[in-house]
Amino acid sequence: MSTPEIPDVLEPRLREAPPVQRAFLWERSVWEPVVHDVPDAAEVLQELPDRIDRQIVRDVVQANLTRDRVLGALVAVLIWGGTESLRAFVARAILTGMRRQGTWEMPVDDSIRDRLLEGARRVREDGAVPAFRYMNNEGKVKHLGSSYFTKWLAFASMTGEIDGSEVAPILDEQVINWINKNTMPSERLRTAKTPSYERYLELLDAWGAPHDRRRTQVELAIFELTRDRPARQK
Description:
about 230 residues; 2 domains; two-stranded antiparallel ribbon; 12 helices
């Protein structure tokens, strides 16, 4: 399959230095009810500074990739993904496997710890595509869709720099919609399909190569174009 040319609007962004990630405030009071019965996550929540950025969340995740701490790592990733009340509700749905009124009092599904850790192991040892396939199929966590679990895989794979070559790029709806709008691939990309994720990585590699940009740097440049504003944190 041929690779589309770099979209005209993206090329100038790739010639620029990669954007600096800004720290942002998050609402602790919104997230405390999410982890009221998850001691490891509650402890991580208390340790988080009032402002977080990609580097801080990376450090938290890398320090908590054990079974008795992994839910704290996940919640840090979900906070980074967005601080609004709806995201907190979704986080509780992920923890319990239930998305309805009364979710706050439902018991946490402890089995998701093992699937999160296995996803982290696979992305580190086998790479982005096998890890995506696992989290999208046999390792699927209810309500943790690909927009969410690719964030998890991204931070779990940050064993070095936050934009290192080993990092699994995030694929959310904003990015995939932008790619579909600005290219004409023979097969439209979809967020919940492993072949689409594999194709996405091919595009990032091809578009980044002429400007010596890594996959995650191209992904962030695309995300910023979806926002049409100066670099801001996801």
